[in-house]
């Protein structure tokens, strides 16, 4: 199987209802002719259904939730379950984003529970990981990433791998305008694929898409996506501009 090429837009806590409507409509219209890439939008929860309505006719367009509850259902005020997300037509859930780890103290145990909930409810998962600037400065970035992968993916049954996509997002590059160089991205992605081969198998590792995230934009996407082990991008800021986001979708060589 050939690895999927994916460009996903994480809108984070941005847009009003109207802005989300306009942005999703513009992205859908501008990207109609772009083929061979899976397109995913992660809008805020309240706009998921509306964005789904806008993109649902497009075969290669998917929507995802930026988070899902680790619990199945019941008295968990404010939580949104994977079952709810699936019932409104969601395809993906983001799990392990560094902002969730940092601001909401999400632990690996919670991330495992979230992934299980997502998969049980037939959602695919984009699992995010990445080192802090301090890790890179003291040369422990591989160790940090390996720990994040092992702590979660070792609990992930092999038969569920088709539901998994990975996203390497170095924290120092998120929202900072500073991007990993193509060489840095390739080096880490190749390392991640090696670790995946030892957790699962070489064949499995070769079939998993690994996205890069962190100040990826319309100018640098092509050189990042040209790297052998970079299978697309998880885009923050630049996914809020329809033109830029669609340029990124067409940046595969
Ligand atoms: P930026 O593209 O804004 O750096 O955000 C990356 C990100 O966190 C995507 O999930």
Give an overview of the whole structure.
By secondary structure, the chain is an alpha/beta fold. It has one domain (6-249): TIM Barrel (Alpha-Beta Barrel), CATH 3.20.20.70. Helices cover 41% and strands 15% of the residues. An eight-stranded parallel sheet has the order 7-6-5-4-3-2-1-8. Helix 1 runs parallel beside helix 2 (48-55), helix 5 crosses helix 7 and helix 7 (141-153) packs parallel to helix 8 (182-199). The longest helix is centred in the C-terminal third of the chain and has 18 residues, at 182-199. The radius of gyration is 17 Å and the shape is globular.
Unreliable sequence segments: none
Outline = globular
Number of helices: 11
CATH-level-2 architecture: Alpha-Beta Barrel
CATH class: Alpha Beta
**Alpha-beta classification:** alpha/beta
Number of domains: 1
CATH-wise, what's the superfamily? Aldolase class I
Indicate the proportion of strand residues. Answer: 5-15%
- Compressed to H and E, one letter per element, the order equals EHEHEHEHHEHHEHHEHEH
Q: Taking Cα atoms only, what radius of gyration do you get, to the nearest Å?
A: 17 Å
Number of strands: 8
Average of pLDDT:
96
The major sheet is characterized as: 8 strands, parallel
Determine the fraction of residues in helical runs and give it as a percent range.
40-55%
In whole angstroms, how far apart are the ends?
19 Å
The ligands bound in this entry are: 1,3-dihydroxyacetonephosphate
């Amino acid at each position: 199987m050939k690895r999927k090429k994916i460009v996903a837009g994480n809108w984070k806590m941005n847009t009003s209802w109207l802005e989300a409507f306009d942005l999703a409509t513009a992205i859908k219209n501008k990207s109609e002719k772009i083929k061979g890439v899976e397109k995913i939008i992660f809008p805020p929860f309240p706009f998921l259904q509306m964005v789904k309505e806008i993109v649902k006719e497009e075969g290669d367009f998917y929507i995802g939730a930026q988070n899902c509850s680790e619990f199945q259902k019941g008295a968990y005020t404010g939580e949104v379950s994977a079952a709810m997300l699936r019932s409104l037509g969601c395809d993906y859930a983001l799990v392990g984003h560094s902002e969730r780890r940092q601001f909401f103290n999400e632990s690996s145990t919670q991330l495992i529970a979230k992934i299980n909930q997502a998969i049980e409810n037939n959602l695919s998962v984009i699992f995010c990981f990445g080192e802090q600037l301090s890790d890179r400065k003291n040369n422990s970035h591989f160790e940090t990433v390996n720990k994040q992968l092992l702590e979660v993916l070792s609990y992930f049954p092999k038969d569920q791998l088709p539901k998994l996509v990975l996203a390497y997002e170095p924290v120092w590059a998120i929202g900072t305008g500073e991007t990993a160089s193509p060489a840095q991205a390739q080096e880490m992605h190749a390392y991640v694929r090696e670790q995946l081969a030892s957790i699962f198998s070489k064949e499995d590792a070769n079939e998993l898409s690994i996205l890069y995230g962190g100040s990826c934009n319309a100018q640098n996407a092509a050189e990042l996506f040209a790297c052998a082990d970079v299978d697309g991008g998880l885009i923050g800021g630049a996914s809020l501009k329809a033109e830029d986001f669609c340029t990124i979708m067409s940046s595969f060589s």
